[in-house]
Amino acid sequence: MDTVIDIKHLSKSFGNNEVLKDVNFHVNKGEVVCLIGSSGSGKSTLLRCVNLLETPNGGEIIYKGKDILQEMKNIEAYRTHLGMVFQQFNLFNNLNVLENCILGQIKVLKRSKEEAIKTATTYLQTVGMEAYVNARPNQLSGGQKQRVAIARALSMNPDVMLFDEPTSALDPEMVGEVLKVMRQLADEGNTMLIVTHEMQFAREVSDRIVFMDKGVIVEQGTPEQVLTAPQHERTKVFLQRTTS
Amino acid sequence: MSLEWMFSIVENNWHLFLRAMGITLLIAIVGTIVGAVIGFIIGIIDTIPKKQTVKNYILRVINFILTCYVEFFRGTPMMVQAMIVYFGLDLAFGIDLNILTAGILVVSLNTGAYMAEIVRGGIIAIEKGQYEAAQAVGMTHFQTMVYVVLPQVWRNSLPATGNQLVMNIKDTAVLSVIGVNELFFQAKSISGANFRYFETFFIASILYLIMTFTATRLLRYMAKRLDGPQAYDKKEVL
Ligand SMILES: Nc1ncnc2c1ncn2[C@@H]1O[C@H](COP(=O)(O)OP(=O)(O)OP(=O)(O)O)[C@@H](O)[C@H]1O
Ligand SMILES: [Mg+2]
């Protein structure tokens, strides 16, 4: 199986707070991996290390056979292969929906404007936001913003989509529309790494679930293995707390 | 106060008043634009991410010089700045500035110092998420600033820039100390000849008001234009 991202012995500290300790894991092509764990366990930090929004203190990030941390020169090019979706959406406030989806394509990937618009339109259709191309971020609901953010990331045609709690900032009635889009992306065979607190969703879409606690990966496996028959005490405690 | 006097002052001097208004506007507008440019440049340099490199050392020196500039122009009266720029440049470097150029230079430098603070604050106020989203699609720091951050800073600092323009229209009056022929200077010289101080300056005050009022409205219109339509049109989807 093709490994897209392989993480070896990754560590990260903020000051003397060791947030990630010797983390090892990988994401295969076409795989959907959900990262779960209690608040403060380092899930976001791990995800942000993967696209270098945080600089790891040690370890390796192997992308298509190359250690990215050794070749820090072209971080920008590396990042175009990863699509990031943030909890707070982070749409560019000065641009409308379409402009949000074509800016990176034109300025970073150097695509022509026509091509960029075509690609953006395709993905805006995927997320059901093609009618809103002229809207500005402040004119959209949270669920709509997040769907545009997903389309913006997809428009770069990344190899992996990274999601950091994409539904945590949403009102409950909008969670469904975003999860539906993500489910569809998973079904289409996209490679996805998702940090989430939505256990039911994780169970349904994941090929693999990774449970983190206090900066280490405690266990990982299929949804059945991790959620139904967890091996470790810490996983059991976490699952009890989230289901009750 | 007599209305007849006012009419006769306007009748006899309208071309002088108009010319002086033109000079006041020229200095205020050019000064505000150049000042805004200076402010943006300083704000941008000031917020370049600091890394432990040699380049960083140079940046620190530049930042120190810029801080001195900002403190000087914010901390001294513009009247004094005018004297220093006009006479000082001549004394120190033998540069004999044309009075109008000196006036524009003083207002530009003064506005630049205030705008630097406004822009710096504006850049800092942009949410971290905007930078991160831009980085995540692979943009460089420079691209992030140009396409995402600065347009927002520009929009957010437009009211403050408008304020600066209004202040500059009024504050050009102090340039009379170096003999710039702006509205206050002109009113002084007209009233010196006719001895109708109140009437002449009353007319001048009306003219200042017309200019500041128009400037405020124009800038508000600009801000509205930048914001785009209140509502978006939803496209037909088949
Ligand atoms: N920029 C930062 N500076 C200092 N400490 C940080 C920073 N970012 C995260 N931390 C710390 O790192 C630890 C892990 O944070 P992280 O955000 O990765 O957790 P998380 O698993 O994503 O939690 P949550 O479920 O609440 O999002 C926390 O103790 C947090 O306080
Ligand atoms: Mg988090």
Short description:
Chain A is built from nine helices and ten strands. Chain A has 244 residues and is an alpha/beta fold. In chain A, a hairpin with a 2-residue loop joins strand 9 and strand 10.
Written account of the structure:
- The complex is a heterodimer of chains A (244) and B (238).
- Chain A has 244 residues and is an alpha/beta fold.
- In chain A, 37% of the residues lie in helices and 26% in strands.
- Chain A contains nine helices and ten strands.
- In chain A, the strands form two sheets. A six-stranded mixed β-sheet of chain A has the order 6-7-8-3-9-10, sandwiched between helices. Chain A has a four-stranded antiparallel β-sheet with strand order 2-1-4-5, with helices on one face.
- In chain A, helix 3 packs parallel to helix 5 (142-154), helix 4 (113-126) crosses helix 5 (142-154) and helix 5 runs parallel beside helix 6.
- With 238 residues, chain B is mainly alpha-helical.
- Chain B has one domain: MetI-like (MetI-like fold), CATH 1.10.3720.
- Helix content of chain B is 81%, strand content 0%.
- Chain B is built from eight helices and no strands.
- Chain B starts with a helix and ends in an 11-residue tail after the last helix.
- The mean pLDDT of chain B is 90.
- Classes of the chains: A alpha/beta (244), B mainly alpha (238).
- Chains A and B meet through helix 2, strand 6, helix 3 and helix 5 of A and helix 5 and helix 6 of B.
- The complex binds adenosine-5'-triphosphate and magnesium ion.
- The site of magnesium ion has 4 residues of chain A, from helix 1.
- Adenosine-5'-triphosphate is lined by residues 14, 17, 19, 37, 39-45 of chain A.
What's the structural blueprint in terms of helices and strands?
The complex is a heterodimer of chains A (244) and B (238).
Chain A: E1 3-14, E2 17-28, E3 32-37, H1 43-50, E4 58-63, E5 66-67, H2 75-79, E6 82-85, H3 97-107, H4 113-126, H5 142-154, E7 160-164, H6 172-187, E8 192-195, H7 199-205, E9 208-213, E10 216-221, H8 223-228, H9 233-243
Parallel strand pairs in A: 3-8, 3-9, 6-7, 7-8
Antiparallel strand pairs in A: 1-2, 1-4, 4-5, 9-10
Helix pairs in contact in A: 3-4, 3-5, 4-5, 5-6
Chain B: H1 3-46, H2 54-75, H3 78-93, H4 99-125, H5 128-136, H6 141-171, H7 183-194, H8 197-227
The structure holds adenosine-5'-triphosphate and magnesium ion (MG).
